[in-house]
From TrEMBL:
Protein species of origin: Sporobacter termitidis DSM 10068
Keyword Flavoprotein attached: no
Compartments (UniProt record): Cell membrane
Name of this protein: Nucleoside ABC transporter membrane protein
Keyword Membrane: yes
GO molecular function: transmembrane transporter activity
Pfam families linked: BPD_transp_2 (PF02653)
GO cellular-component term (any): plasma membrane
Length: 371
């Protein structure tokens, strides 16, 4: 007699499926939900520290926006962060994972500092500032050219290459700080001298002109990536190198050109940092902006205008975190965790915008006859 056995073939409990399309309203609804959840999770952390979440969040906002001094401090954070994010956008659009923005910023800062420290007496202020800008752009472009050339010529891993270049340029600045460029008046603590007034950027509305420059760069980068032939080439190479070669594009040229532009903008950011707010050079001048800018670029979808909003939000968080450390005696590490939690939810929501989870709803049953 033949018996029949029933075998349950269970589907996975959950599957990840890429969305074909999602409405703008739904996408922003997911982002809003992520922000609310991040504030709720952050509120639990604040409660665990023994403070009122509403009071802490209030002081974060007022401490970064309520006064002119606070606004200027917030703007000084936002300027290099937005500039660095703009520099990353074309590289990431091409799927060239440029993790060397920190080093490119530092290279630009180093080049600008040379003229600020040693040539300020030989040029008028406008000429000196223009030369500093030009030097920083060239230096950042060169620091971007190196990994781009190796990638285009031999297909090296750009992630590791650009990351290692960060440490090389930081080591160079450390050597200069402790040796040739050490300020004799600094005594036993090696540091580089402060810039002369002629090498400091002029201000508009109390903030250095860097804010005008980065906003102009945002507009230009949007036009460049969206409407120019080179922007189209960047998008095609990012989608498929094989397709780019098939239709006759010079892929190595596109790679080198794009990363040189990316590095040049990052180099300019270095000049804005040392000449616009720090007024000196150190091995920490890049301030982590190059790494944070990766988050800004991804959250903004590589759209320069969206990156402006994200940058302002992060600048408010950063300045507000400094405020609550003072007002509530919250440790710096706890403030960093709070910012990290908020960013975690904001980055995580992008996953749910691009993908959706399908949960198992029924069992598939297969009837197998046995002899």
């Amino acid at each position: 007699m033949n018996e029949t056995s029933i075998r349950d073939r269970k589907e996975p409990f959950a599957r990840i499926v890429k969305r074909d399309d999602i409405s703008r309203v739904k996408a922003w609804g997911i982002r809003l939900a992520a922000i609310l959840l991040s504030l709720l999770a952050g509120g639990l952390l604040i409660l665990a520290l023994g403070h009122n979440p509403f009071a802490v969040y209030r002081d974060m906002v007022t401490g970064s926006l309520a006064t002119k001094t606070a606004l200027i401090a917030t703007a000084k954070i936002a300027i290099p962060l937005l500039g660095a994010a703009i520099s990353i956008a074309p590289a990431f659009k091409m799927k060239f994972w440029n993790i060397g923005t920190e080093g490119q910023i530092m290279a630009g800062a180093l080049a600008a500092s040379y003229f600020a420290l040693f040539q300020h007496g030989n040029m008028s202020r406008p000429v000196l500032i223009l030369v500093m800008f030009a030097a920083s752009v060239v230096a950042g472009g060169i620091w971007g050219f190196i990994p781009a050339f190796f990638k285009a010529k031999w297909g090296t891993n750009e992630t590791l290459f650009t990351l290692m270049l960060n440490y090389i340029i930081i080591g160079i600045v450390k050597y200069l700080r402790m040796g040739p460029w050490k300020n004799p008046a600094s005594g036993g603590f090696p540091k580089i001298a402060m810039f002369d007034d002629a090498a400091r950027l002029p201000s508009v509305f109390g903030v250095n002109i860097g804010w005008i420059i980065v906003l102009a760069l945002a507009v230009l980068m949007f036009i460049y990536m969206r409407y120019s032939k080179q922007g189209y080439e960047i998008a095609v190479v990012g989608e498929s190198v094989r397709t780019s070669k098939y239709i006759g594009m010079n892929v190595p040229k596109v790679i080198i050109r794009t990363i040189v532009i990316s590095g040049a903008i990052a180099g300019l950011v270095g000049c804005l940092i040392v000449a616009g707010s720090a007024y000196t050079l150190s091995d920490t001048s890049s301030g982590g902006y190059g790494f944070t800018a990766i988050t800004v670029a991804w959250l903004g979808g590589l759209n320069p205008f969206a990156m402006i909003i994200i940058t302002v939000f992060l600048a408010v968080l950063t300045k507000g975190a400094n405020t609550i450390q003072t007002n509530f005696k919250i440790p710096a590490s706890a403030s960093d965790v709070l910012i990290g939690m908020i960013l975690f939810f904001m980055l995580g929501c992008e996953f749910f915008i691009k993908y959706r989870l399908i949960f198992r709803t029924r069992r598939r049953i297969e009837v197998v006859p046995n002899d």
